[in-house]
Amino acid sequence: MPSTAAEVPDVPEKSRRGPRWGIVAAVSGLVGILLAIIVPLLPVTQTTSTVSWPEAGTLEPVTAPLVAYYPLDLTVEVPCTAVGQLPDGREDGVLVSTAPREAGENAAARALMVSVAGPDVEVRSRNALVASAPTDAVAAPGACSTIRVTADSGSIGAEFVGLEIDGQGVGGRIDADLRPQVVGVFTDLEGAAPEGMAVDITVDSRYTTQATAIKQIAIVVGILAILVALVALHRLDLRDGRTARRILPPGWWKPRPLDLLVVATLLVWHVIGANTADDGYILTEARAAVSSGYMPEVFRYYGAPYAPFGMPYYLYTAMSAISLGSVWLRLPALLLGIASWILLSREVIPRLGIAARRAAAVRWSTAAVFLAFWLTYNNGLRPEPIIAFGVLATWVSLERALATGRLLPAATGFIIGGLTLSAAPTGTFCIAVIIAASRPLLLLVIRRAKRDGWVPTVAPLLAAGLGVLHLIFLDQPLVTTLQSSALLGDVGPSGSWYEEVWRYEWLMNPTPDGSLARRFGVLAMLLSLITCAAILFRKGRIPGVSVGPARRIVGLAAISIAFMALNPTKWTHHFGAFATIGAALAALVTMAVLPAATRSLRNRMLFLAGVLFVLALSFTSTNGWWYISIYGIPWGGTQPTIAGITLYSVFLGLMLVALLAALVLHYREPFMTRTGQERDGGDRGPLLRFAREVSHAPLGLAAALVVVVIVASMAAAVRNQYPAYSVGLQNLRALSGEPCGIADVVLAEPDANAGLLAPVGEPRDQLEAGGEAVVFDPDGIPTDLTATQAADTDTPGTGEGSDTTSTTAGTEGGVRIGEGINGSHAVLPFGLDPARVPVLGSHQSGAQFNAETTTDWYRLPEGAGENDRKREDPLVTIGVAGSFAPDAVLVEYSTGGGEFEVAGSVLPIDIGPAPSWRNLRVPTDTLPDDATAIRLVVRDLDPDPSRWIAFTPPRMPELVTMQQLVGDSRPVLPDWAVAFHTPCLRPFDEYAGVHELPEYRVLPDRGLAVSSTNTWQAWDGGGPIGFIELLLEGETVPTYLEHDWDRDWGSLVRYTPLVPEAREATVTHDEAVRSGLWNGGPLAR
User: Fold this and answer.
1) Fewer Cβ close by (within 10 Å): the C or N end of the chain?
2) pTM (whole model) above 0.90
3) What values do phi and psi take at 153, rounded to 5?
4) Nearest alpha carbon to residue 131 among 178, 86, 171
5) What is its main location (predicted)?
6) 143-190 pLDDT, tens per residue?
7) pLDDT tens, residue by residue, 205-228
8) Mind giving me the DSSP string for 975-1029?
């Protein structure tokens, strides 16, 4: 960027042992550069894994779900005599497969199957027929010895060894990568393993590596060399004859009123504020690193590491070993926020010039915009707080270098920039800092090189910038890291630079990704950037502002926006990296529109109109926040209004007034007398001076309004929700020693059968005993109950598409073999036992008739109406399915003893989705204290054949918390949106390429699940659902959010094995030394 000569002081020609320190700087710098380049190429020790079957001489199936899905290679040998050993003389069956046939079409489409299929013996991989032979010929004595199958990345082949037909051997080969997905080894054969039966699987464990001794030594020496080079560079800096400079300005530590306000706001927000979308994603990765030995992509990408980024996540790995509380884990974000404000107030604002140092409006406008950005985007575990701080620290370091003519600050900036770049792709903003300062920095380097020599000058700088490679490649080789990075791009989502518009489309959608708070920060930054760039381009300077730093801030912002387009993912949460850049621009634009800088009242009025337009556009969105952070939020799903008036319309009207005033001033200004300076009017006291300052900073006022709105909203959410769950209340609980999050307030039914209410005087198999059932029938239920009720379309997705009609496990209906207690063949949900639980439905084929029934009375437990009992048994629930009117099910209650009469009725709560099975809820505090029995009145009066209802008897569920049910030791798949809010649940482990099987899965609310977590974690993206659906069958456990009964908080799924007799495979581990250029082969997909 342009610079004046004064910004790069001349370098005096003084010796001061220059040659000696020059040699040290050159040698240590070159050593640091050389080792930083060599470290990625040095060898690592890989933990290899193999699986061999049968085990212990038996044909018991084993499970071994591979992290990468596909093995490096696989060999299968099946003796041909096994064809005739299928149990019960079956003519069809699986001899060997890498997924159980119980998984149905998914197993056939993904796994290897060596099977007898009637007249033929077939070898199929991913449904591709590799080879086949007539069953009779294979089974003929002496004709065939072995069925041998081999597969690797280049081909898959099968051979019926010894078998000839028409003088030709029998087999086949496909020259393509058709390696099957492996989740274990399974067979229909029974008993002892026949001689010659063997399956050998080489697991892809390329990421499970550790640094060898030589690599560790190289890293230590490399880091020491960089430190020595920095010391030498500092000694060369001192040749200018000046003393060493302070790192921070004098008195930086003394708090000021504005500092206290900013820090207090950050502290309050740390407790009550919303979390970011990926907190659970990152926390689960950090926890998984303990077992896997690297930072794996748990939820996608075949377990590949998040390399070369994600270095700071190891901090969360260490922190999670101390506590899993949200307040503790988010402490780095809080400290980075405070540190960023210190840099802004102590380093950035003073460097912008005398106007910035004198004008209070500049400081508080900077603070307001900083808070509006930081609170919205940077209150979690995502890397944006690191980027925001790192970019600002890099800028400050380079500005210090340019101001002092010394290179140690520049080298420090390169180190900070490198570390920041290792956090996330948006770390490229630090490169933007260097580009923006490149011209004056190059001039400084040239002048220093003329005095000290090129190598002593440049080598320490390059070594400092490359030093981060020691951390990135600490235990990963170069090629593997490159393969992982390429895999992430291939799997996607991955947008090109010209698709950056997607990010701004998300920002302008009325969802949490485009909420009023997210919009305001970005739009305010863009307004500031455009205004400052226009003034600098037109006038070349802003009065009272240092031109060099001002231009470099504008250049940094513009280049960073361009670099953002190179980021392959297009989520709006990446805008959090602009928090400090936006704040610095706010300081600059506030100085630019102060009366001392912009004397034209017309132009100031135009800027005011721009600020009001930003507010209007921001408030056209909702006050939305991610997932459970939105609980209890005012205007959480609507445009903010007061007394029925939308706030955006108020701001829009004020904008039109400002534009009209600017138009009037445009024609009036030529006739106005320019005094050169606004009349002060004397000292009228601090309040009037403050009011005048405020009026000169409309952007600061707008930002302060947004900060007040979002902080007040979160405080109101705690009050609105109490005693129900809210983020703020949970954080307060965590501070008092209850860190388990929503798992402590979600109530679950371990056994849905245990809460069944007993009918009065009638057998348990009768639902219609109290009245005539018209049309209702035990089999009046469709076989497919997949939800047709679309999920919440306001829920932001992952860009992977969404299945808005998906259904939680076990609620999709079906037909069972055998009759239930009242003759029904319907598959019941939630683990309800058909031998105990009757069911009736009104679904009809052909002509439609009204369906009505009134059940017998069901006795409530004694004392159910008492307050203590209501707390212990807070709900009555009814399992229902179908699409029906809100008043189709009515719960009537009686307060009588022997003779029951209707004393009143209650409409139960239905949270959907229809027509899947779900639980209607009747809070017991809606029943009178003396209620003794209830009954159901069910009516289906809709002639539409798609409108029907099915129901089971009422229950008073026996409830425990989800944390009590699942515990902290069982392996769980917490979907990434939920994981941060259920920290005491243990995510399933992985090691050396093999997964542990989860026993439970926790999903978010249906809107988020169908739009994001289901698709993100699915088979086609290399997620855990891809192996779970081949091995496990899920059933939804009924759950309810305590004191918030009509809330769809999410769901809990309990897994059972598809093959109960399958046990965990024995995995054999070994070690192999791999060079940094070792290629483990292509990654199958």
Assistant:
1) C
2) yes
3) -70, -15
4) 171
5) membrane
6) 899 999 999 999 999 999 999 888 888 999 999 999 999 999 999 999
7) 999 999 999 999 999 999 999 999
8) -TTTGGG-TTSEEPPEETTEEPPPSEEEEE-HHHIIIIIHHHTSGGGT-THHHHH
